């Protein structure tokens, strides 16, 4: 039997190709891909901003159904909420188990995303069997080194596809809590005032997580009015259009909202270097800056090291999330009060993947979901 997959031959070139449907090894299973979200990283790959071993089958924000499963898969994989069987609805963490032997696994075991030997669905070469190692396909071959989560019944089919980006968003807020138990006035906590700079899908989900985790005033900034309107729906208290204000005006406005000192936490979600500089400007002394927007290198920006010292700032980067973060994401999806279904604005068949990639960033477009079975 032949199955279809969207193969990115090189940046800017995608073809729908057919592959022989593989049979899973004893430690693997075959996933019928029901829904897969288009991530901003997928667009960066398409535009040539990421060095990958082309050709690749992209896609990593997946929800699907177990089609065929090897007899030892439940014992070999890290299966959460299982065991799983054919017909079960699951999501799969893009990153594999850690190797356990590289420098980072041995010296920084609490940061599994730094493992030098991780495999990531949607980012590997697709020229060798079993070929189907990305989710923009009718089926994905799930190897034995995977983390798999059985989808809870309390999560609707409509928003389950948001599990992976919610894992990013909850990791962002988790970094604001860290490191360790904060002293009074340190880090994020109930009532903290937070600026979210950039209201794409990740920024909007960060706003939702902040609101449900007890944030005080949430200030959201973006260039696009529709995104700012959506930020309000997700829980932002104040929105600022950066196209209608100068950086100096935004700093002044944020200080007016925060007793003249700035926000406790500033989170850069826009992926623009200049916005990182602005995060340093709007955060208060003794505050924290979280940088999550730069999964690709979009250039440099000018900062003043004195500002970091004078403000005594903590600056934390976010490189994906530990694999167990999917549990936090699934818990959030079950309890959140935010209307997350509003973030999914478009559903497309597999052959329209390029159209979906082109749509990202346009007015009124948030999360585009590809449905390969349609």
SSE layout:
Layout: E1 2-10, E2 13-20, E3 29-37, H1 40-46, E4 61-69, H2 73-76, E5 78-80, E6 89-92, H3 103-107, E7 139-142, E8 147-150, H4 163-177, E9 194-197, H5 201-212, E10 218-222, H6 225-234, E11 238-241, H7 247-256, E12 263-268, H8 273-282, E13 283-291, H9 305-311, E14 314-317, H10 325-335, E15 344-348, H11 353-359, E16 367-370
Parallel strand pairs: 5-8, 9-10, 9-12, 10-11, 12-13, 13-14, 15-16
Antiparallel strand pairs: 1-2, 3-4, 3-7, 3-16, 4-6, 6-8
Helix pairs in contact: 4-5, 4-10, 5-6
Task: Give a quick precis of the structure.
With 374 residues, this protein is α/β, with parallel strands linked by helices.
Defining traits:
374 residues; 11 helices; Rossmann fold; 16 strands; Quinone Oxidoreductase, Chain A, domain 1; six-stranded parallel sheet; alpha/beta; eight-stranded mixed sheet
Describe this structure in words.
The chain has 374 residues and is an alpha/beta fold. The protein has two domains: 2-151 and 339-370, Quinone Oxidoreductase, Chain A, domain 1, CATH 3.90.180.10; 165-317, Rossmann fold (3-Layer(aba) Sandwich), CATH 3.40.50.720. The chain has helices at 40-46, 73-76, 103-107, 163-177, 201-212, 225-234, 247-256, 273-282, 305-311, 325-335, 353-359; strands at residues 2-10, 13-20, 29-37, 61-69, 78-80, 89-92, 139-142, 147-150, 194-197, 218-222, 238-241, 263-268, 283-291, 314-317, 344-348, 367-370. Strands 3, 4, 5, 6, 7, 8, 15 and 16 form an eight-stranded mixed sheet that branches. The chain is globular. The protein starts with a strand and ends with a strand.
């Amino acid at each position: 039997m032949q199955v279809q997959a969207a193969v990115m031959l090189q940046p800017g070139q995608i073809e729908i190709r057919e592959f022989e449907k593989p049979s899973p090894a004893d430690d693997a299973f075959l996933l019928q891909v029901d829904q897969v979200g288009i991530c901003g990283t997928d667009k960066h790959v398409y535009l040539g901003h990421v060095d990958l071993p082309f050709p690749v089958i992209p896609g990593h924000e997946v929800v699907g159904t177990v089609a065929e499963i090897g007899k030892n898969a439940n014992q070999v994989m890290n299966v959460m909420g299982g065991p799983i069987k054919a017909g079960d609805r699951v999501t799969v963490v893009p990153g594999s188990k850690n190797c356990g032997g590289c420098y980072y696994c041995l010296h920084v075991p609490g940061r599994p995303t730094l493992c030098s030997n991780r495999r990531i669905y949607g980012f590997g070469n697709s020229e060798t069997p079993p070929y189907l190692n990305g989710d923009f396909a009718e089926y994905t071959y799930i190897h034995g080194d995977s983390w798999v989560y059985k989808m809870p019944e309390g999560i609707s089919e409509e928003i389950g596809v948001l599990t992976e980006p919610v894992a990013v968003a909850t990791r962002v807020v988790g970094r604001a809590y860290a490191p360790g138990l904060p002293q009074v006035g340190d880090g994020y906590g109930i009532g903290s005032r937070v600026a979210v700079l950039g209201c794409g899908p990740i920024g909007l989900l960060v706003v939702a997580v902040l609101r449900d985790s007890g944030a005080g005033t949430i200030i959201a900034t973006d260039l696009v009015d529709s995104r700012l309107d959506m930020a309000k729906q997700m829980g932002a208290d104040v929105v600022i259009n950066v196209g209608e204000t100068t950086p100096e005006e935004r700093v002044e406005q944020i200080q007016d909202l925060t007793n003249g000192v700035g926000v406790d936490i500033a989170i850069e979600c826009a992926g623009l270097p200049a916005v990182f500089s602005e995060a340093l400007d709007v955060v208060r002394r003794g505050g924290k800056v979280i940088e999550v927007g730069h999964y690709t290198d979009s250039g440099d920006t000018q900062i003043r090291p004195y500002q970091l010292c004078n403000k005594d700032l903590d600056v934390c980067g976010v490189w994906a999330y530990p694999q167990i973060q999917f549990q936090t994401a699934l818990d959030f999806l079950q309890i959140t009060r935010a209307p997350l279904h509003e973030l999914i604005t478009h559903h497309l068949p597999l052959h329209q993947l390029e159209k979906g990639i082109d749509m990202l960033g346009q007015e009124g477009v948030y999360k585009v979901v590809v449905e390969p079975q349609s």
